[in-house]
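Design review, sub-item: ligand-bound model
Attendees: FS, YL, KQ
YL presented the inputs for the 6-O-phosphono-beta-D-glucopyranose complex:
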Amino acid sequence: MGFREDFLWGGATAANQCEGGYNADGRGLANVDVIPHGPDRRAIITGKKKMLDFEEGYFYPAKEAIDMYHRYKEDIALFGEMGFKTYRLSIAWSRIFPNGDETEPNEAGLKFYEDLFKECHKHGIEPLVTITHFDCPIHLIKEYGGWRNRKLIDFYENLCQVIFRRYKGLVKYWLTFNEINMILHAPFLGAGLYFEEGEDEEQIKYQAAHHELVASAIATRIAHEVDPENKVGCMLAAGEYYPYSCRPEDVLKAQQSDRDNYFFIDVQVRGEYPAYGLKKLERNGIKIEMEENDLELLKNHTVDFISFSYYSSRVVSTDPEVNEKTSGNLFASVKNPYLKQSEWGWQIDPLGLRITMNSLYDRYQKPLFIVENGLGAIDTPDENGYVEDDYRIEYLKAHIEAMKDAVELDGVDLLGYTTWGCIDLVSASTGEMKKRYGFIYVDRDNEGNGTLKRTKKKSFNWYKKVIASNGEDL
Ligand code: BG6
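KQ shared the predicted structure:
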């Protein structure tokens, strides 16, 4: 009983939130570089405000982030010390193709990840690679309009042709697009989209999503052609919707809200647009333009496993009186009176993880992989930089217990678990450093001050013990 023998314990990061080195060794600029910390951030990531270059008076946290570009050996050694079996990271597209539309890749960028993957293997760590984690070369946005343009499929295909061949034997687990459903909530992150006055945003988002879905199917095809050992996953920002009450209207609304997210995964796992989704698009006057063999591609190249992030469940109500919302998260949710919340207003619901896992497994019967879960919290280090983060341990422990129940009691097939931000990094939604998730403290603040020194937190040894006991000793 318990987790499978080869259970992949580990942690997760994304290039733009940890690497820094934004212009090192020929790297090109990406959307994620030009999103500042501060009040304009939300408008930019949601496509309401256009920012495609560095502007005076702003601080751009991704430029240096935690400088993992130059410190990855030290960081991976620490992951190895914790006993990580896997490390989820993303490649920065613009390191490999600085503009995105070149025919030849940038060797220095390719070499960087090759060395990094080798470093992982040195420590017995299997890399799990997200091909696109919210990043898009800025040139592709300026010149082509990001993923609204079908040409992006070809550029993404070039990237895949190069990386699958170059990293054959070094990387086996791939994710095509991080949180693909995020395109609806943060389209600049999800697809390099921003909108001009009067544009039909929903139409553009769904067209861009179609391009990503086709690109994802092509990536899956190439991955399997290049190496039949490759396993490719989709990636969902998950979290079950609960009806606020048992009023049938609330229950229906919860089901519909879940479907808004499943829509993308249904295509990637089942190979077809779901009937409910097509009807909804039709009702809303959205028409997706497709090319002749798109549907065949989607049908023939479905993913091998389903990965997802889980931070919280969500709640909906049809009663206008029930309108207290939770803050922080990009997904709209009514406040759940039964749950506590984090310092950023994200609700904490370990049992919701088990519920979400069961819904996904019931729906698809394919192996699951939890590739993000964690608590963003304010850490206060002592004079030696040590953080006693019992709150983080408590959060993770409760979630691991729930996922264990999903495996042991419900029979869900789970490949692994990577906590989000295993080392402190820049927050995607707020751009802050003080929203910390890590087992490793990084000395850097919201304004970019600090030595970048790494220090193990209390949770470091706790997680080491969890991994060593394959989740028995919590
Ligand atoms: C997920 C993203 O949405 O949530 C990560 O895939 C992100 O990139 C994580 O960092 C946590 O969100 P935040 O806003 O606290 O960084």
